[in-house]
Each structure stands twice: as C-alpha cells, then as structure tokens.
Specification:
Layout lengths: L1 H4 L13 H16 L1 H35 L3 H12 L20 H16 L28 H9 L14 H6 L1 H18 L4 H4 E8 L10 E6 L2 H18 L16 H17 L20 H10 L4 H12 L2 E6 L2 E6 L10
Parallel strand pairs: 1-3
Antiparallel strand pairs: 1-2, 3-4
Helix pairs in contact: 2-3, 3-4, 6-10
C-alpha cells in the first residue's frame, strides 16, 4: 500500500545512466527468472548501452569545460570541476573553541565566531615612533577631483562581473546593466551627490561577511576566509575612485612594482626571478630570495598610516576624504547558516575593488 501511495523513486548511481538503461535493468531482472538466453542478450545490450552513454556524457562534460575555458567563464569551470571531484561540502557544525572543546549549539557557534572575529579585527596599533615616509612629488591633476562623468560610469558598469552575489541591497550587476541609459543617468546623479557631499550611503558601507572554508581542518576558525558581499552600486562608485587613483599611481610607481599594475602580474615576476637565478648559477654565484606571506593581511590595516601614505604621495584630498568616508561608517554583518549578527569592523573588505 505504501509503494502504491508513495512510489519509490529510483536513484541513479551515475549521472550518465538514462531511463532506457534503467528499463533494460528491469527487463534483464525479469528475464533471468524465465529465459536465460534472453537474459544474456539483455545483459550484452545493457553493457553496450552503458558504455555508449558513459562516453557521450564525458564528451559532453569535456566540451562544456572547454567552452567555459574559452570564454573565460571560470565560475562555470570551477563549479563543474567541484561537481566532478565529488568532494563533500565542509561545514562549521563542529567548530573548536579556544579551550579546545567543541561547540554544541547554534548559540555557541555564533559566540565562537564573534570571539574569532574580535581577535582578528581588533588588533593593536603599531608601537614605536611615527613612521617617516619619503615625500613623492607628483603633478596635480584637476580631472581627478571633478565629478564623475557618464563615460566613467558606463565603463565602471561594463566592468562589473555577472553572477556575483549582491550585498545587503540585493541589487545585482545584471540588473544594473539591464537598466540602460535611464538607469545610468540616475546613477550619475546619485554618484555626483555623494561626490559633492562626501557622505556615503548606508547600504554602501555595510558588508555581509560569509565565512568560507579555505584549507586545513574545518573545525578551526582560522582556516576560514571571510568573503565580504558589498553593494554592487557601491562598487561602481569605488571603481571610479580606483580608476582615478590608478592614473595618479602610475606616475609614482617604481619600475620594479608588478602587483596591482595593469599589464603586469605574478608570472612576470616569476620570469624575472628565474632569469636572475639562471644567470647567477651560470656565473657560479649564490642567490638569496626572501618570501613574505602576510596572514589575514586585509584584516590588519592600520588606517592612520594608510592615510599618511596617501598624503605623502600627494593623492588629491578629495579622493582621500571619499576613502575616509567609506571607512568611517563601515560596518559588517556576519552570516552563519542564514543567521546574521552585526559587529563594527576596521578591516579592509577583501571584496572591495580597492
């Protein structure tokens, strides 16, 4: 009676198994009891069909991966790779407390995350004498402090990536792009108002932090990385500031600087380091290379020193004041299993365009 009322749904153990194969399995099972020759024929047919469907499935998956890589759709590429790897998703259900014991309830889990984030963000200011920075003379540029024009806004909107999770305002990049010229004009008016008043909207200041397991033991909070979900509209504003600051920064960057420079990256530095080592080995000389890895660097920014460095580099005060405005009122809400708890933070949001 239960099977008639609620039929049992057959679960496919492999993704390439079709309904036709399942039907052949049933026929083979029935033939085994009454006709052995028929059973052997169905068994051969089933093996042939399974082999064909398995090859077709993997050819289709390989084609999808190749197409995704060709159009630089890394979201699709990584998602398919994770699905094929069959790795189970990690959870924070068994977090370890500071004393080594494990959490037993949702309240304890939230409390543990609060403690960890407090330790991570509430760092002490650096001790010692004030940092003396060498003043860098750069020419002034009136364009850097003027209100953003419509071309800058269009360029910033076009650079937004689709598929990114929006922040607290739930406005996606795809929705902004679909707004057309009308929305761009409204967005220009809003950004101009913020530019003049130097007052940042509350939704732009608020970040939604989601801890994502990065490596190692999933029971340790230190092995998680906090991803900040920011307002997409706020990112348009920050992209404009970034583009203007980048124009100013290119005039002061040294030739050796490769990080955060257009057209340069880690591969260039690896090539240079390899060339140097090969040449020194050829000449019989030793080479010493130092590598420094800053753990949780985004969470340990000393803001007074950052403002001082921008001042020394003669970054226009309009840009500095706008950056200070985005920081002074910043706050975050941490989401743990769809439960939010708020805390003030002084960290540099790692999802920010800056």
């Amino acid at each position: 009676m239960c099977k008639i009322t609620v039929p049992v749904i057959r679960r496919r153990t492999q993704p390439w198994i079709s309904n036709e194969c399942l039907q052949l399995v049933d026929e083979r099972k029935q033939a085994k009891l009454v006709d052995f020759n028929r059973y052997r024929q169905l068994n051969q047919e089933l093996r042939r069909r399974m082999k064909m469907e398995r090859e077709a499935y993997w050819n289709r998956v390989a084609g999808e991966l190749e197409e995704a890589a060709g159009r630089s759709d890394y979201r699709m590429l990584y998602r398919t790779t994770r699905r094929l790897s069959g790795k189970a998703k990690t959870t924070d259900d068994n977090l370890r407390k500071a004393d080594g014991t494990f959490v037993r309830s949702t309240a304890e889990r939230l409390q543990r995350w609060k403690e960890f984030l407090s330790e991570l963000c509430d760092h002490e200011s650096p001790q010692g004498p004030p940092l003396e920075l060498l003043s860098i003379q750069t020419p002034r540029n009136a364009f850097l402090v003027g209100e953003p024009n419509i071309d800058e806004i269009k360029k910033a909107v076009r650079s937004l990536k689709n598929g990114k999770t929006p922040g607290s305002d739930s406005i996606s990049a795809k929705a902004i792009k679909a707004g057309g010229e009308v929305l761009l004009r409204r967005l220009q008016s809003l950004i101009s108002l913020v530019w003049q008043s130097e007052v940042i909207l509350a939704t732009w200041e608020r970040a939604l932090v989601v801890p994502i397991h990065k490596k190692g033991d999933s029971r340790e909070c230190k092995n998680y990385r906090g991803i900040s979900l920011l307002s997409i509209v706020g990112k348009v504003f920050m992209k404009i500031i970034q583009a203007r600051h980048q124009e100013h920064r290119e005039q002061t960057s040294r030739e050796e600087q490769a990080g955060f420079c257009p057209g340069r990256g880690c591969c260039d530095q690896i090539f240079v380091a390899r060339q140097l080592m090969e040449e020194r080995v050829r000449r019989g000389k030793q080479t010493v290379i130092a590598f420094i890895d800053f753990e949780s660097a985004f969470d340990c920014v000393h803001w007074p020193t950052l403002w001082k460095s921008l001042e020394v580099e003669h970054v226009p005060w309009k840009i500095v004041r706008l950056l200070q405005a985005t920081h002074n009122g910043s706050s975050s809400s941490v989401r743990i299993k769809n439960i939010l708890f708020a805390r003030e933070t002084l960290s540099l949001r790692n999802s920010s365009t800056l």
